[in-house]
């Protein structure tokens, strides 16, 4: 699996169990649409997925 490729990821919120699709190269942070917990954090221009990854979508 190429590391340079961007993917959409289905992630699960650790707090409320909500699943939503996020872009793993999002320029900004992504929060759970239900409870507001951070799912993707922006760190030094890179995104870091902090939620549980359920599925990688091409
Ligand atoms: Zn949540």
TrEMBL record:
<dbReference type="InterPro" id="IPR023407">
    <property type="entry name" value="Ribosomal_eS27_Zn-bd_dom_sf"/>
</dbReference>
<feature type="binding site">
    <location>
        <position position="13"/>
    </location>
    <ligand>
        <name>Zn(2+)</name>
    </ligand>
</feature>
<dbReference type="GO" id="GO:1990904">
    <property type="term" value="C:ribonucleoprotein complex"/>
</dbReference>
<keyword id="KW-0479">Metal-binding</keyword>
<keyword id="KW-0862">Zinc</keyword>
<dbReference type="GO" id="GO:0005840">
    <property type="term" value="C:ribosome"/>
</dbReference>
<protein>
    <recommendedName>
        <fullName>Small ribosomal subunit protein eS27</fullName>
    </recommendedName>
</protein>
<dbReference type="InterPro" id="IPR000592">
    <property type="entry name" value="Ribosomal_eS27"/>
</dbReference>
<comment type="subunit">
    <text>Part of the 30S ribosomal subunit.</text>
</comment>
<feature type="binding site">
    <location>
        <position position="16"/>
    </location>
    <ligand>
        <name>Zn(2+)</name>
    </ligand>
</feature>
<keyword id="KW-0689">Ribosomal protein</keyword>
<dbReference type="InterPro" id="IPR011332">
    <property type="entry name" value="Ribosomal_zn-bd"/>
</dbReference>
<dbReference type="GO" id="GO:0006412">
    <property type="term" value="P:translation"/>
</dbReference>
<keyword id="KW-0863">Zinc-finger</keyword>
<feature type="zinc finger region" description="C4-type">
    <location>
        <begin position="13"/>
        <end position="35"/>
    </location>
</feature>
<feature type="binding site">
    <location>
        <position position="32"/>
    </location>
    <ligand>
        <name>Zn(2+)</name>
    </ligand>
</feature>
<comment type="similarity">
    <text>Belongs to the eukaryotic ribosomal protein eS27 family.</text>
</comment>
<dbReference type="GO" id="GO:0008270">
    <property type="term" value="F:zinc ion binding"/>
</dbReference>
<feature type="binding site">
    <location>
        <position position="35"/>
    </location>
    <ligand>
        <name>Zn(2+)</name>
    </ligand>
</feature>
<dbReference type="GO" id="GO:0003735">
    <property type="term" value="F:structural constituent of ribosome"/>
</dbReference>
<keyword id="KW-0687">Ribonucleoprotein</keyword>
<dbReference type="Pfam" id="PF01667">
    <property type="entry name" value="Ribosomal_S27e"/>
</dbReference>
């Amino acid at each position: 699996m190429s590391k340079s490729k961007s993917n959409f990821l289905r992630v699960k919120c650790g707090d409320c169990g909500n699943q939503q699709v996020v872009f793993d190269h999002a320029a900004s942070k992504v929060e759970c649409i239900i409870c507001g917990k951070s799912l993707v954090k922006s760190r030094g221009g890179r995104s870091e997925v902090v939620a549980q990854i359920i599925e990688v979508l091409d």
